[in-house]
Structures are given as structure tokens and as C-alpha cells.
Amino acid sequence: MRRFMFFAAASFVLVAASPAEAGEPDWTIYADKRTEGVGGFQEVGATGPDDAWVVRTGLPMLRWNGKTWRNGGGSAVPYLVTAAGAGETWQFVETFAKVDARHRTGGAWHAHPIAEEGAHAGAALATGPDDCWVAGLRFGQNGMDDRVWHWSGKAWRAVKAPLPLTDFAASGPEVWALSSVGAGASTHTASILRWSGSAWRTVPMPGVTLPARSRAGDAYAELNDIVAVRQGEAYAVGAVSYLRGETRIIREAIVLRWDGTSWRRLPHRPAETAYTKVAPDGAGGLWLAASRQDRPDELTHYTGGAWTRVPLSARNAAIRGLANVPGTTFMWATAEAAEAGVTRQLILAYR
Fold first, then answer.
1. How far is the first Cα of the chain from the last one, in angstroms, to the nearest whole number?
2. What does the angle CA 184 – CA 190 – CA 196 come to, to the nearest 5 degrees?
3. What is the pLDDT at residue 108?
4. How far is residue 154 from each of residues 120, 132, 175, 219, measured CA to CA in Å?
5. CA-to-CA distance for 176 and 277, rounded, in angstroms?
6. Cα-atom radius of gyration of the chain, to the nearest Å?
7. In what order do the strands lie in the sheet with 247-258?
């Protein structure tokens, strides 16, 4: 998704890991760090049981080697990471002169910058050894322009899209993208696009009823994440919300499913809930991160047609990242918990 970061000086202390105390018993806190300013845990991803990463604000990423989490090594501070498999990773490092894109293949990092001054990558997806999609913005004298770039093994090329792209998902040849800018969208609803092989095209969406409000245009439907479980099956999640003054009020969650022919909205619509992340559970189901109005975040497990709420053991936690370890039912999640003036960064795992 789109991400703009501002950093301040900080420090953190490692606290011993402990098992989760609530929800499904197999969720475990693997790492618990206190932070002030920088070092906040963001996205998490994995390519296998012995390889996972966590992006941190203002610090090099953490890496999992199958036994422990350690600093990823090197001085690079990526704010965006995507991988197509073991040994095939892209990372993006903040710089104004260009989009500093780096590709790890063959055991070494190779620089492949997107040479557009003032450009910023907000979403990226590696779909194969020689294939990567990036969406973002370019800041110029006339304001901001939306950008999409595609790497096909030799160079980046700019690709036109009819709408701003905010996230990607893919399974095999199927490549999807979201266009969801929240209350700023002119139509007040999100869109889903599909790559045809030569162009990005919008696809028909199921109707989402927006609440009638006293001020026109203050209700909107947003999609926060999209995942392709397999070719012919994908999910997009978000919420219906409206604005009361400057305050966002969450009305109900949105879960859309692609069945190979069309997108439809599932009847699961918990009130005062926004789904912010979705990932396959490795067994045909889903894990979802749920942001709840005026309440702590929690996880939701969708399996066998049933939806199960899973509270987090940490109080006042906000889930930042969620990922499945390919080929397994093992899950990673990152969260931030704040209580009594102490901010904690958490890495959780599900076996």
C-alpha cells in the first residue's frame, strides 16, 4: 500500500518471547521489542520455513533463518520488500533522486533503479524471477502523478493504468491490482483491475451499499488488501466507512471473492470492523487482520465455511503485517501494542 514515513531518534530493548495467552493456543509471540520512534515493525513476508523478513521503520529489516530473528545485515533500510521465492527478493530504499530498487538473485544484491526523480514506490509484487510490478507516485512541480512500472528481466518500463494502483496479487498468469484511496476517491468506492497481458483493465464489481449521510460524499467503500489463493480464486477485503467531521466511523467489513468468473460479496459482514490484511492459511482457508472501531485489533480465521474470531494476547495491539509460509500452514504476523506509555513491537507465529 502507499507508505510515507518520517523518522525520529529511538532505541529498543529485546524482551523474552512468551506464548500467546488468548485466542487459538498455537499463536505464539516470538519477539517482543520496546521502541521509541524508529524500529516499528511493518510488513512481514516469507518464502519458506527458513526464510522470512520483517520491514522496520528507519532500520534494516529483520531476517528469520529457521531458528531465530536477526538483523538482516548490511546498511540498507528498505521500506518495501517483495519476493517471488527463495533467493528472489526485491527491496526498495527511500531516496528522492530515484526509486532505489534492489534485486537479490544468485545470492547477491543487484541495483536496478527506476530513474524518475521524485518517484516513490508504494506497492510492489514479484511474480517470478524476471517479473515485478511496482506502483507509486511521482512528485513534480505540478503536484503528484500516479505511476506504474514493470520489470521483465532486463529493464523497467512505465505502464499506463486507468486508475491509481494501491496493491497487487497474483497466482500463475493471473495478476490483480486494487485501486482504493479511501475517502479521497471521486466515486467513493474501490476498484479491482486485472492485467490482460497488455493492459490494466477494470473488472465489474458487486454493488456495495453506502450509508446515506447528511453530507454528500462522506461515505465510502475501501479495499485494503487482495490475495490470489490459486488461479481462479482470489479475495479482496476492506470496509464500508463514513466520516463524522474528521473522524472515520467503520460501519461493516467487506469480503469479496473471485470464483474464476466474477467477483461477489460474501455475506460475512461484521459490524464496526475493517479487514486490513488477508493471507492464505495454507489449507484452503484465510487469515484476516481485523481493525475494530474503538477496540483492539484481532485476527479472524476463515476455514471450512466458518469464521472464527481470534483475539490477540497483547492489549491495544494493531496488526501491521500478515503472511503465510508457502507450502505450510505456518503463519507470521507483526503488531504494535501500546500501553502505559510503552510501545511494543511484536512478531507472532501460528503453527
1. 27
2. 125
3. 87
4. 21, 11, 20, 44
5. 16
6. 20
7. 219-230, 233-244, 247-258, 263-265
Number of Cβ within a 10 Å radius of residue 336? 19
Length of the chain in residues, anyone?
Answer: 351
DSSP-assigned letters across all residues of 321-338: EEEE-TTSS-EEEEEEEE
- 335 half-sphere exposure, CB direction, 13 A CA radius: 30
- Separation of CA 217 from chain center: 27
Q: At residue 51, does pLDDT exceed 90?
A: yes
Residue 11 makes CB contacts below 8 A (sequence gap 6+) with: 35, 36, 39
Beta strands at 342-350 and 27-35: parallel, antiparallel or unpaired: antiparallel
- For residues 52 and 26, the model is more confident at 52
pTM reported for the whole predicted model: 0.89
How far apart CA 323 and CA 277 sit, in angstroms, is 9
- Residues near 125 by beta carbon (within 8 Å), at least 6 away in sequence: 82, 132, 133, 168, 169, 170, 175
Cα torsion angle, 69, 351, 298, 83, sign: positive
Q: Which amino acid is at 339?
A: E
Nearest to 121 by CA among 156, 172, 70, 87: 156
β-partners of residue 232 are none
317, 342 Cβ separation under 8 angstroms = no
Question: What does residue 242 show for φ and ψ, rounded to 5 degrees?
Answer: -145, 165
Helix, coil or strand: residue 97:
coil
Phi and psi at 183, nearest 5°, equal -65, -15
What is the layout of strands, in order, in the sheet containing 167-171? 167-171, 174-179, 191-195, 200-202
Confidence of residue 217 (pLDDT cuts 50, 70, 90): low
Burial 208-243 (b: 16+ CB within 10 A, else e): bebeeeeeeebbbbbbbbbbbbeeebbbbbbbbbbb
Q: 3 pLDDT exceeds 60?
A: no
